Amino acid sequence: MKIEISARKREAKGTGASRRLRRSGSVPGILYGGDRDAVNIMLDHKELYQHLTNEKFHASILTLKLEGAAEQVLLRAFNMHPYKGHVQHIDFQRVSRDKKIHMKVPLHFINAEVSPGVKEQGGVPNHVINELDITCLPDDLPEFIEVDMGHLTIGHSVHVNELKFPKGVEPVLHRGENPVVATVIQPVLITEEEEAAAAEAVPAGEVPTTEQAAPDKAAEGAAAGGDKAVAAKPGDKGGDKGSDKGEKKEKK
User: Do 11 and 77 lie in a common domain?
Assistant: First the structure.
């Protein structure tokens, strides 16, 4: 299914002009690439926002209608407001049918629920990456790449070189690279019995609890206090001062 989007040329440039466009419900953007100059454009925010919620919009050849002419383009970048959720700016790149493009496409994971690792061993599917860099001609661009996890057992993985790519599509990898795409892992669950067994495995007295450590600190404090009391001399400030006064009263 082809996706079409409308745009208009914009003459005003700069931060102030872009701010006024956003307040009026439009989004500033740019169209570049090919053998032509870059063009400043503006698009309707509501229409654009709806397109951006569609996964296909991010990894498809789009038809951009500009001033009565239609151009084949790719979405290259867009900026969102940090908390308002509004589109701030968007970039499109022209494409040529005879030139390969470099694109990120989403991965679709299938059959994980029927894999031996999940169905029989109680494992959990783990998606290591969710999109992949590919290169191809524009007409060969797939909407997504399937990752079949139906054969996986716990501890086993699917690598990029095991994926089935459509004709004319190749992954973009460094030399010798073959990253993991998905795997099935053992869930980490600690039961009460395991906790009790772990507690019994530690010899008593080696790892004091908080309750055990608190009385020890109190005892150390009392011992330190006792030593100070013995070391105190008559006439020093503190508890002995009162006893000195008592002795003087008796003499009187």
Answer: yes
What are the φ/ψ torsions at residue 92 (nearest 5 degrees)? -125, 145
Question: Domain residues for 91?
Answer: 3-95
CA gap 190, 199 in Å, rounded:
13
Q: What is the CA radius of gyration of the chain?
A: 36
Compute the mean pLDDT over every residue in the chain, rounded to the nearest whole number.
82
Residue 235 one-letter amino acid: G
CB burial of residue 103 (10 Å; 0-12, 13-18, 19+): buried
Is the residue at 149 inside a domain? Answer: yes
C-alpha span between 40 and 10 (Å, rounded): 6
The owner of tokens 């790149």 is 93
**pLDDT tens digits, one per residue of 210-250:** 454 445 544 454 444 444 444 444 444 444 444 444 444 44
Residue 61, number of CB atoms within 10 A of its CB: 17
DSSP secondary structure string, 35-72? TS--EEEEEEHHHHHHHHTSHHHHSS-EEEEETTEEEE
Is it the case that residue 208 has pLDDT exceeding 70?
no
Span of 123-132, 162-171, 192-201, 217-226 with lowest mean pLDDT? 217-226
- pTM of the full structure: 0.66
Last residue of a domain, one of 79, 95, 111: 95
Domain final position from 185, 206, 228: 185
